Amino acid sequence: MKNNLFKNSTDASLIEKNPVLMLHVLDTICSGVIISDPNRKGNPITYVNSYFLEITGYKREDIINTDLFNIIFAYSDDITKDSLINLINNNEIINYKILNYKNKINDIYINFNFNPIFDSNNTLLYFICTFEDATKEILLKEQTEKALKTESDFLSNISHEIKTPLNCIIGIVDLLLKIDVDEINKKHLHVLEKNTNHLLNLIENMFNLSELQSGNENLNNSLFNIDQLLNQLVDDYKNKGLNKGLIFNYHYDNRIPHTLIGDSIKLKKIISCLIDTSLNFTEKGQINLIVQLNNMKETNRICVRFTISDTGIGIPKNQLSNIFEYPTNVSNLTSKKYNIKLLNLALSKKLIDLMNGSIYIKSDLNVGTTVDFDCEFELISKNSVDIGNKMKKILLVEDSEDNRFLINCYLKKTNYILDYAENGEIAYEKFKNNTYNLILMDIQMPVMDGYKATTLIRGYEEKNNLSKTTIIALTAYSFKENLEKAIEAGCNFTLMKPIKKTTLLETLNDILGI
Q1: What is d(CA 416, CA 437) in angstroms, rounded to the nearest whole number?
Q2: DSSP letters along 137-175, please?
Q3: DSSP SS3 for 211
Q4: Are 117 and 5 in contact (CB under 8 A)?
Q5: Where in the chain is the domain with CATH 3.30.565.10?
Q6: How far is the C-alpha of 418 from the C-alpha of 195, rounded, in Å?
Q7: Nearest by Cα to 285 from 364, 371, 367
Q8: What per-residue confidence (pLDDT) applies to 206?
Q9: Which residue intervals of the chain bear CATH 3.40.50.2300?
Q10: Which CATH architecture does the domain made up of 392-512 adopt?
Q11: Rounded CA separation 160/398 (Å)
């Protein structure tokens, strides 16, 4: 679309008769203005207003008759400059592009707009550029991003510091519950197990909320045991259902592999939101959770369908079309409690969208509600190296003595031989002098962390034409950037702490083909 300066003779006459007025207007507006002549070599600047000089620190004599490009792109990178010059040469309008300038004291950021001006005969007359000082806006954005990064780093460190001892507590309780103990001690252990799991859920919810509030909503994919995750949820909700006199039914499709790769924290949040909603609105009858294999999308992906149904009060038909939107205006049937239901459904939809899934709802008043949602997960790639049926040697790289003790307890009376390294430097030296079927690599360690150790191991394998050893990153971190950093360093998978025996053994068996 072209900007025609003179749409009619009246417009032209107004400008011709009032040039002083027009210049005064241009010089007093709170936007920078540059006008150049595109019909002369070098697009010389013929006019610059005071505001542009004020925000950039230029002097008028530095600007007038100077090549337009030399001024507006003085501090731009080559990619930005080339792309914008290409648009200008094609006489295209440019809106809201950020350019960087340097005045006498600081860097400044300017919102740049470009307009080619034509007369009524579509003859190009001028290039007019306008500029808005966006420095405060950009600096505020940078400060916000820096604050969010600081918060993320802080929460990551807190996650590590809390989950590392929790890993040992949950693991040891899990082991003790599998041996013969008297009823009193078993009750003590169940209380300990319930409260440590509650603490873990609080930590995970804190990280999930932090991500949602910051807008940094990403998938934090790692290895997890879906059967174990669901069993923990079901045990909790069965008790809650019994307290209300409700029956809680659960069915799990055994065709679904137990060890998957996905965002277990978001999956748990989705299921919890939906079951909590059913519990709040079901006074009699039952709640059902059905988990089924939907289909195999690709050779290394699986689609799982989750169905939560209840015999509750249901939802009016006229509200089903926008049921997943955050509530703003509801009918007189609604209440604060009902708003919570809508919020839970809206949050579930948002999380399911992040997981590239889909959600469906059916409901009848005074009959009940059924919610189906589908999510995709990755499958573990089997180790392609023929390792036979002999004992498998695993290198555990872990600086915590308690965690080394725990993993050793997990792997007792199995086909796994465990070797240890207290940090990444020792791990690298041991790797060069031994052959391992798999490496369990802690991420945060003194002397040398897991990222560096993994990078060195991959470099050594490449240099010596060795087959790649499967490396599983053991991490208490919950944020996407930490998990991605482990994969970029060369880890095959990530496994988040705390780790239960069942999860570890099934993961090792799946990868090593036992």
Answers
A1: 10
A2: HHHHHHHHHHHHHHHHHHHHHHHHHHHHHHHHHHHHHHH
A3: helix
A4: yes
A5: 221-379
A6: 31
A7: 367
A8: 67
A9: 392-512
A10: 3-Layer(aba) Sandwich (3.40)
A11: 13
Six token digits for residue 389: 């049926």
**CA-based angle 454:455:457, to the nearest 5?**
65
Cβ contacts of residue 467 below 8 Å, gap of 6+?
385, 461
Q: What is the pLDDT of residue 334?
A: 46
Q: Length of the chain, please? A: 514
**CA–CA separation, 166 and 459 (whole Å):** 34
What pLDDT does 461 receive?
95
**How does 231-263 read in b/e, with b if 16+ C-beta sit within 10 Å?**
ebbbebbbeebeeeebebebebeeebbbbbbbb
Report CA 313 to chain centroid distance, whole Å: 35
Answer yes or no: are the C-beta atoms of 36 and 68 closer than 8 Å: yes
How many angstroms separate the CA atoms of 223 and 503, rounded? Answer: 9
DSSP string, 5-63: S-SSHHHHHHHHH-HHHHHHHHHHSSSEEEEE-TTSTT-BEEEE-HHHHHHH---HHHH
How far apart (Å, rounded) are the C-alpha atoms in residues 92 and 507?
57
- The low-confidence residues of the chain, meaning pLDDT below 50, are 5-15, 328-335, 384-387
E-strand stretches of 311-432: 358-364, 368-379, 392-397, 416-421
d(CA 224, CA 208): 17
Rounded (10°) CA dihedral 90, 93, 98, 100:
50
| Residues 311, 281: Cα–Cα separation, whole Å | 9
CATH 3.30.450.20 intervals, the chain: 3-133
* 221-379: CATH class: alpha beta
Q: What does residue 417 show for φ and ψ, rounded to 5 degrees?
A: -100, 130
The domain made up of 3-133 has a fold known as Beta-Lactamase (3.30.450)
pLDDT score for 291: 97
Contact assessment for residue 282 and residue 241, using Cβ atoms and an 8 Å cutoff:
no
Tokens of 480: 């996407």
Q: Containing H/E element for 475?
A: strand 470-475
Helices and strands in the chain, H and E counts: 16, 18
User: Per the structure block, which two tokens stand in for 440?
Assistant: 């369990």
Q: Tokens at residue 458, please?
A: 């991959």
- Reading the block at residue 320, the tokens are 């089903």
C-alpha 137/C-alpha 131 separation (Å) is 14
This model's pTM is above 0.85: no
Closest-CA residue to 164 (of 478, 488, 509): 478
